[in-house]
Design goal:
single chain; about 375 residues; alpha+beta; Jelly Rolls; 2 domains; 6-stranded antiparallel sheet; 7 helices; 26 strands; globular; dioxygenase activity; oxidoreductase; Gentisate 1,2-dioxygenase; Cupin_2; dioxygenase
Length: about 375
């Protein structure tokens, strides 16, 4: 009799628990307590069971390039101003995010194809992959760029993209869209006008290569120029040429490298010396023939795209073979090491990172493993 009573009480308790959890869910609440006696700190485990970005590789030749060409054939600018493929991390679906704070998109522009001006609170860069005459107009500066060149479109700056050449051109974009969206600060504006007239293209207000003319001599700053361009705190230099960064890497080819990063150059704001944006930064890295970095883990997330050569990335023990124009997502908290698989040619890799945002929040940390496997705090 006693056993039957205890079983009935247990069933009643289970029913009450289910009813309570249902009411909690319907009230849009989360029960922050342990629900399993078999799991230590079960309440923390539940709290951390949300979506997390995972390491993932998008292949350019096999997947992205064919889909870009097909989309250009099937979708015209009359159908949509935008024709881009956003890389969505499998661990974050359905969010449009390649890592938690950033997304990468690829776009193919047909010859003489220009989209109308727009602006948004997300900051962005464009990196040329193919075609010598990719086009971006930014706040009245017309920028024509080719493979490896990086163009800034800071938040809230009017800009438009396209191709002024006779051959199709493909570029890669990186935006802090997911971060800005999370902070509930995302907005778009498409109503561009000049003198009250709606315009499909910005009028040029600066000479060609204004950024290079004004900011291209390192260590020298014209005092007679108004440097207030773009958003507050972003770089006024809107174009960074691949030729210059490639030459600088080559000049340092024989230097002793950082064992965790190889030879890495950061794109910086010529006025302030820091990252080009407050939310994200960009690097060009050289791995010399056969070079392999030591493992490093950091709270910042990376987007890694080889421009020259091939790189084997090992992320938490899993190997990813990356080739030209691929993109590899390296979420924060991932142990990562990189190896140039060529014995004769250097590998050149473009890297985007949310490091400035993590630093601003006081959350940026890095750990490295020594050659002997010991873990040390780098910063």
């Amino acid at each position: 009799m006693m056993q039957a009573t205890q079983q009935a009480a247990g069933r009643a308790s289970e029913q009450e628990m289910r009813q309570m959890y249902e009411e909690i869910g319907n009230a849009h609440l989360f029960p922050f307590w342990a629900r399993s006696a078999d799991v230590e700190h079960d309440e923390i485990r539940q709290l951390m069971q949300g979506q997390r970005a995972v390491p993932y590789l998008w292949r350019y030749r096999e997947v992205l390039e064919p889909l870009l060409q097909r989309s250009a054939r099937l979708i015209s600018t009359a159908d949509s101003d935008r024709r881009s493929l956003i890389l969505t991390n499998p661990g974050l679906k359905p969010r449009r995010a390649t890592v938690t704070t950033l997304y990468t998109a690829y776009r193919l522009n047909d010859p003489n194809e220009i989209m109308p001006p727009h602006r948004h609170t997300a900051s962005a860069i464009r990196l040329g992959l193919t075609g010598a005459q990719n086009f971006t107009g930014v706040e009245g500066e017309d920028v024509v760029f080719g493979p490896g060149d990086m163009v800034l479109t800071p938040r809230d700056t009017w800009h438009n993209h396209g191709n002024v050449g006779s051959e199709p051109a493909i570029n890669l974009s990186v935006l802090d869209y997911p971060l800005v969206e999370t902070l509930n600060a995302l907005s778009f504006d498409h109503d561009y006008s000049e003198g009250g007239a709606v315009m499909r293209k910005q009028s040029a207000r600066f000479p060609a290569d204004y950024s290079a003319i004004t900011y291209g001599a390192g260590g020298l700053m014209p005092r007679f120029v108004d440097h207030r361009r773009g958003a507050n705190g972003s770089s006024p230099m809107f174009i960074y040429r691949y030729e210059a960064v490639r030459e600088l890497l080559e000049k340092h080819r024989e230097w002793a490298e950082n064992p965790y990063e190889g030879l890495r150059i950061e794109y910086v704001d010529p006025l302030r010396g820091g990252p080009v944006y407050k939310t994200m930064t960009f690097f060009m890295q050289m791995l010399r023939p056969g070079e392999r970095t030591l493992p490093m883990k950091q709270t910042a997330s990376l987007l890694v795209s080889p421009l020259e050569g091939a790189v084997r990335a090992t992320l938490d023990g899993e190997a990813f073979e990356t080739h030209q124009f691929d993109t590899l997502a390296v979420p924060g908290g991932t142990w990562a090491e990189y190896e140039n698989t060529s014995a004769t040619q250097p590998a050149i890799v473009f890297i985007a990172s949310d490091e400035p945002a993590l630093r601003a929040f006081g959350l940026l940390q890095r750990w490295g493993k020594t050659a002997g496997g010991d873990i040390m705090l780098l910063d």
